[in-house]
Amino acid sequence: MNADTVMNIGREAIQAALFLSAPLLLVALAVGLLVSIFQAATQINEATLSFIPKLVSVFLMLILAGPWMLRFMLEFMRRMLESIPNVIG
């Protein structure tokens, strides 16, 4: 196992983490921006007004993107487990 292999595995792991978290974070960002614009327009400064829509939208996105996220993670883990003999040997 050389440094090149370790760097490649680390890069793939970070890339997988970014791909899996991106849909949820982007939805939370978009909803937070819309709620902030609404709060600025109406001058309502309520913290829960921002939290509840973000929570609901992330939950709905998790339901929608969940199957894709599961397939992506299973494929990543399958590749990692199949590469163990190459890494050790």
Q: Brief overview, please?
A:
This protein is an all-alpha fold. 91% of the residues lie in helices and 0% in strands.
Describe this structure in words.
The chain is mainly α. It has one domain (3-88). Helices cover 91% and strands 0% of the residues. It has three helices and no strands. It has helices spanning 3-42, 47-82, 84-88. The longest helix has 40 residues, at 3-42. It starts with a helix and ends with a helix. The mean pLDDT is 92.
Strand content: under 5%
User: How many angstroms separate the termini?
Assistant: 8 Å
- Label the structural class: mainly alpha
Enumerate the spans where pLDDT stays under 50 for 5 or more consecutive residues. Answer: none
What is the overall pLDDT average?
92
> Shape, please?
elongated
Strand and helix order: HHH
Count of DSSP strands:
0
Q: Radius of gyration over alpha carbons?
A: 19 Å
How many domains?
A: 1
The biggest beta sheet, please? none
Number of helices: 3
Helix percent band: over 70%
Can you tag this structure with a few keywords?
elongated, single chain, 89 residues, mainly alpha
Chain-wise SSE layout:
Layout: H1 3-42, H2 47-82, H3 84-88
